[in-house]
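Table 4 source record.
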Amino acid sequence: MQPPARWRAGEEVRGRLGTLASWVSGDGAWYVPCLASLETIQELCRKENLTCKSLGITNRNLKSYEVEYLCDYKVEEGTEYFLVKWKGWPESSNTWVALKNLKCPLLLQYFHSDKNEYLSRLKRGKAVILKNHIKALNPVVAQYIVKKAKQRIALQRWKEELNRKKNHKGMILVENTVDLEGPPLDFYYINEYKPAPGINVMNGITTGCECSDCPAEKCCPEEAGFFLAYNKQKQLKIQPGLPIYECNSYCRCGPECPNRIVQKGTPYSLCIFRTNNGRGWGVKTLQKIKTKRFVMEYVGECDPNLQVFNVFIDNLDLRLPRIALFSTRTIKAGEELTFDYQMKGSLDVTSDSDAVSPVRKRIRTVCKCGAVCCRGYLN
């Protein structure tokens, strides 16, 4: 099957080489994955003098060499050498380069930091003496350094992807100081709900408030029979369990309306980080968050510092609220963001005292939040 002549911008090289063919048809884009390794594709690019940003091959390094990371270390005849992985070149092209010829202080810092981290964990790892009096790293240490470098690159690419997709003001950082795990393969960053098959989400909004200065006049919350959720400082002022009705796209008020908080997205910079107790990936704030402030929206398909509220903006279907998380207390910068999976105060929950069939006992998931007042289970 021959692809049409009109290729998507930026995809021609990948299509010709087969790593990710992409062309535009009448009903969208088609992607054809390739089983060839990244190294093989890079070698083909070099041979054909082709550039591809996604493969790390640019006009800048097509004919030149740029250090991507450092793989190993040795001392030979009094001269220090580092094994260099060149950006956009396969590992088969790695070469030993004298330290005096390297102009990559940050990568050298990473190399020594990763080496020391590994050795400190093992409390061993003296350099080994090879034949011809060549002093070198233990191969196990070198392997760890390479894995760490590859992880760092993968996490950096993930961070860049997340920040391209986000639609809010704050930045997203990624951090793993626990293990060599890279970006989770089953994680997809989304800005809005993705309904499951068979669920029809109708807008349901055909009108909005006529306020010129919300909420001085009758506004959306009052129309729905509830109170305005925020005060003048944009802090939450209603009790858990009450819904939040924000102004919508039909309202006369503008984007600076004080009743438009959740829809603007989180104003805080957050960090996705690897937890050290087997809980996988978590989220922490990089800024101090005052109490009763909107933090983020939960858009899915414990002492908790976030409370869940149902929010209605452009959809008034009570079965399909947007789920917003507000701070229950002041949260320090660097503190993990947590919320109660049972979402008490926002959704109906079945308590432990509810009747459970002795035949059908519910399967419970252990919680690892570590809070003193934790119930011990997520459900």
